[in-house]
Amino acid sequence: MKTLHSLIAALALLCLASCTSLPDNVRPVSNFQLDRYLGKWYEVARLDHSFERGLSRVSAEYSLREDGAVRVLNRGYDAGTQKWKEAEGVARFVGAADTGHLKVSFFGPFYGAYGIFELDHAGYQYALISGPDKSYLWLLARSPQLDPGVRDALLAKAAALGFDTGKLILVKHD
């Protein structure tokens, strides 16, 4: 019985660790500066998931908490119900604070990977984000619209890494 408990505990730890790891060939950016990343970002494109399904005008706002963690406030408009939906979470660095690899939780002790693998280091105006596997992809920008040439180049990079960019939803912000 003790062996079974040890096996279950080991599998649980492995599962929790794998939820915060990034896909094999996705590398988080270095020289990341959290203070420049804080503030409001708009979703330009995303792969579909139930927690955002049907939402438009989606944004994420990042702010520093007193404990040093990052407050995450995601917001989107549900045209079907004609109501705004919000989710508040917390993000913490997985490793060094100058690497764009965080873990985010919206549900207690359960964290998911948040890997910034492309970033406008000069102006912090756009970012590509991955989750724990390639079914999670977000293109964020500081404004609701992103130059089509920049957008296409970013999506080409994501496609080259194996993300299914043909399934991306271009988020409406009207």
UniProtKB/TrEMBL annotation:
One Pfam family per UniProt: Lipocalin_2
Which of UniProt's keywords are assigned here? Cell outer membrane, Lipid-binding, Lipoprotein, Membrane, Signal
Q: CDD domains recorded for this chain?
A: lipocalin_Blc-like (cd19438)
Q: What is its main location?
A: membrane
Question: Which InterPro entries does this chain map to?
Answer: Calycin (IPR012674), Lipocalin_ApoD (IPR022271), Lipocalin_bac (IPR002446), Lipocalin_Blc-like_dom (IPR047202), Lipocalin_CS (IPR022272), Lipocln_cytosolic_FA-bd_dom (IPR000566)
Where located? Cell outer membrane
Question: Does the keyword Transcription regulation belong to this entry?
Answer: no
Q: Kindly indicate whether the keyword Signal belongs to this entry.
A: yes
Signal peptide positions are 1-23
Q: Where is the Lipocalin/cytosolic fatty-acid binding domain?
A: 33-172
Q: According to its UniProt entry, what is the function of this protein?
A: Involved in the storage or transport of lipids necessary for membrane maintenance under stressful conditions. Displays a binding preference for lysophospholipids.
What does the subunit section of this Swiss-Prot or TrEMBL entry state? Homodimer.
- Name the family: Belongs to the calycin superfamily. Lipocalin family.
Q: What is this protein called?
A: Outer membrane lipoprotein Blc
